[in-house]
UniProtKB/TrEMBL annotation:
<feature type="transmembrane region" description="Helical">
    <location>
        <begin position="92"/>
        <end position="110"/>
    </location>
</feature>
<feature type="transmembrane region" description="Helical">
    <location>
        <begin position="148"/>
        <end position="167"/>
    </location>
</feature>
<keyword id="KW-1133">Transmembrane helix</keyword>
<keyword id="KW-0472">Membrane</keyword>
<feature type="transmembrane region" description="Helical">
    <location>
        <begin position="12"/>
        <end position="34"/>
    </location>
</feature>
<feature type="transmembrane region" description="Helical">
    <location>
        <begin position="206"/>
        <end position="224"/>
    </location>
</feature>
<keyword id="KW-0812">Transmembrane</keyword>
<feature type="transmembrane region" description="Helical">
    <location>
        <begin position="236"/>
        <end position="257"/>
    </location>
</feature>
<feature type="transmembrane region" description="Helical">
    <location>
        <begin position="40"/>
        <end position="59"/>
    </location>
</feature>
<dbReference type="GO" id="GO:0016020">
    <property type="term" value="C:membrane"/>
</dbReference>
<feature type="transmembrane region" description="Helical">
    <location>
        <begin position="116"/>
        <end position="136"/>
    </location>
</feature>
<keyword id="KW-0175">Coiled coil</keyword>
<feature type="transmembrane region" description="Helical">
    <location>
        <begin position="269"/>
        <end position="291"/>
    </location>
</feature>
<protein>
    <recommendedName>
        <fullName>Sugar phosphate transporter domain-containing protein</fullName>
    </recommendedName>
</protein>
<feature type="transmembrane region" description="Helical">
    <location>
        <begin position="297"/>
        <end position="316"/>
    </location>
</feature>
<feature type="coiled-coil region">
    <location>
        <begin position="315"/>
        <end position="342"/>
    </location>
</feature>
<feature type="transmembrane region" description="Helical">
    <location>
        <begin position="173"/>
        <end position="194"/>
    </location>
</feature>
């Protein structure tokens, strides 16, 4: 049990690191190079995803091919089987891809419009949307404690208070971010469901999702002339821009992989909680690095409330884990006593 807790915490830390690096690299790209072509950025990210996953699949395929040499299955049969499995998986992930694509576009566009401290403040409402989606999808089988409700209230209200002073700066950015939160909460539950029902791995989900989105993003970029604007972008052939552009796409890949891994190994609530805990470092660092917002009473109060809520939630979950540990020990002791009597 102790090893499982350590593993869960480690997975959450990896997710937190990937989330921070992606947010800062994307904000750097938007702010320093004044690049706001979200569709092209998503198209490039999905391309990177497909390339990395394909390389992994080829390596895995060659290994399987060697293992199948001594069997009765031909290489052609193996290819056909894998192709059919790929088509089946792509169909299963279409609803997820639609939700993810829309949410990712809203999130990236919001990040380009809102300062990181406020972006992170409103992102903390994710835990509220995860809670709502869990109820709507009928997955709320466990009894809801008073401490849990208090923690969700503190986190959500703190996020709203943090953005009050600056809410009128860019209403569109705030609305897009809330849409991103709603769809992110849905995506976390869909990812967990695909893992439980279809045994999807995090890499499988990234791969299938990217294959589904790539042609759609390409068509949209052509119709909206985003692709034309990209090739006319003044900083396109600067080494610094291409490096930053590629890093955002790479960090996006690792963030998706870490997100799905954390969701499948832990839970959607673990993702939402990690969001809040990492924000204390992200908020302070973003104020120092970008200086696009000055701390004020609302921001300080809002962030403080959110962190109090995160602490209450963490304490509640630790108490639940200890209680389960105690129940497991008691159950094991009872089984041992029964065996001894027999």
């Amino acid at each position: 049990m102790q090893n499982k807790i350590i593993e869960s915490v480690f997975i959450c830390l990896i997710y937190a690191f990937c989330s921070m690096t992606f947010s800062f690299s994307a904000k750097f790209l938007f702010k320093i190079f004044a690049f706001h072509n979200t569709t092209i950025l998503l198209l490039y990210e999905t391309t990177i995803n497909i390339i990395i996953c394909t390389i992994y699949k080829i390596i895995k395929y060659n290994k399987e091919k060697k293992e199948k040499k001594d069997s009765q299955i031909s290489i052609l049969q193996l290819i056909v089987t894998q192709f059919k499995e790929r088509v089946k998986q792509n169909k299963l992930t279409i609803p997820f891809s639609i939700s993810y694509g829309t949410g990712a576009y809203c999130g990236m566009t919001a990040l380009s419009k809102i300062s990181i401290p406020l972006f992170l403040a409103l992102r903390r409402t994710l835990i509220f949307f995860v809670f709502v989606v869990q109820i709507l999808m009928g997955k709320n089988n466990q009894q809801i404690s008073f401490k849990f409700l208090i923690s969700v209230f503190f986190i959500t209200s703190g996020a709203i208070i943090a953005g009050l002073e600056h809410f009128n700066d860019d209403v569109q950015g705030y609305l897009l971010l809330l849409i991103n939160n709603m769809l992110s909460a849905l995506n976390l539950h869909l990812a967990q469901g695909l893992n439980q029902s279809q045994q999807f791995s995090p890499l499988d989900l990234v791969y299938n999702n990217s294959i589904n989105l790539w042609p759609v993003l390409l068509i949209i970029s052509i119709l909206t002339k985003d692709i034309k604007q990209f090739f006319e972008f003044e900083s396109l052939y600067r080494t610094e821009f291409m490096l930053s552009f590629t890093l955002v796409a790479l960090f996006g890949f690792f963030l998706n992989l870490a997100t799905y891994n954390c969701t499948m190994k832990n839970s959607p609530f673990a993702i939402a909680l990690t969001h809040n805990i990492k924000d204390i470092f992200s908020t302070i660092l973003s104020i120092l690095v970008f200086a696009d917002i000055q701390p004020d009473t609302f921001l300080t109060l809002g962030i403080s409330l959110s962190f109090v809520g995160s602490f209450i939630y963490s304490l509640t979950k630790m108490q639940e884990i200890k209680k389960k540990q105690q129940q497991t020990i008691e159950l094991t002791n009872q089984e041992i006593k029964v065996l001894i009597k027999q």
